[in-house]
Design a protein that fits this description.
Length: 251
């Protein structure tokens, strides 16, 4: 049975010459990668980096792959590689659990990972940012209103930056990640954005925050981890998010 698999990344890695590499080859996880799962010194994002680095045999026609390159991969590609590593190593069936928002019961169902939707860019196409017109926007210290919002997509380096915040303050981690992805916010300079910090996002109305999050989720390439769930206890139908931290559990 083959121990290596070629996959097609949703976005791809752009090298120093501007060439995008979307084809990658991975090998099945071994005991060396299993040991990484028990390394408590690694944050969740660092673990993803090390797992991919260890299992990535080739990336396009690049001569070698290192951790720095894996950190520069878009989160969309990193999540996709995790999905394919799980499928290739342990198979397509995954028992996943979700919490019902109505009755609070734990809902379990078997997911078929081969049927997970993956949104890819066409071969050779560059990844464009997300353009959003905010309803209320942000009013700066000079009284000027900023409503045009443009986002780029997170990379592994962004994930590693916010990882230490996730357990203690997940909302802060979410805002810190979003802040790193702002490409343009009205006419505010980069220095101004850095000066405001996540406060600029906290000052937005809840409607604008929801609008940004929805656009981010709807327009992001990569794996769609949102699942339609039916609660066996109260009959509620709801949307759950697959928890990829369970991908490599043996039970």
């Amino acid at each position: 049975m083959a121990r290596e698999l070629e996959v097609h990344l949703p976005v791809g890695y752009q090298d120093a010459n501007g060439k995008t590499h979307q084809r990658a080859v991975i090998h099945k996880m071994t005991g060396h990668e299993e040991a990484l799962l028990f390394d408590t010194a690694l944050s969740s994002a660092q673990l993803v980096t090390e797992l991919i680095r260890s299992c990535l045999v080739r990336l396009g026609d690049l001569e070698s792959v290192d951790a720095a390159m894996v950190r520069q991969l878009y989160s969309a590609d990193r999540n996709y590689l995790l999905l394919e590593l799980r499928r290739f190593t342990l198979g397509d069936q995954l028992l996943e659990s979700y919490s019902c928002p109505r009755c609070g019961a734990e809902v379990t169902q078997v997911e078929d990972l081969s049927k997970i939707e993956v949104r890819r860019l066409p071969e050779g196409e560059s990844l464009a940012g997300i353009q959003i017109q905010l309803e209320d926007g942000y009013t700066d210290r000079e009284g000027k209103s900023h409503t045009e919002f443009e986002l780029t997509f997170p990379r592994g380096s962004d994930e590693e930056f916010v990882a230490p915040m996730i357990e203690k303050d997940p909302l802060k981690a979410q805002d810190a990640l979003l802040l790193r992805c702002i490409k343009r916010f009205g006419t505010l300079s980069k220095a101004a954005l850095e000066g405001y910090g996540i406060k600029i996002l906290r000052d937005l109305t809840l409607g604008d925050r929801r609008k940004i999050q929805a656009a981010f989720e709807d327009q992001s390439p990569g794996v769609n981890f949102r699942r339609a769930i039916n609660c066996q206890h109260c009959g509620t139908c709801f949307e759950g998010i697959m928890d990829i931290s369970h991908f490599f559990a043996l039970s």
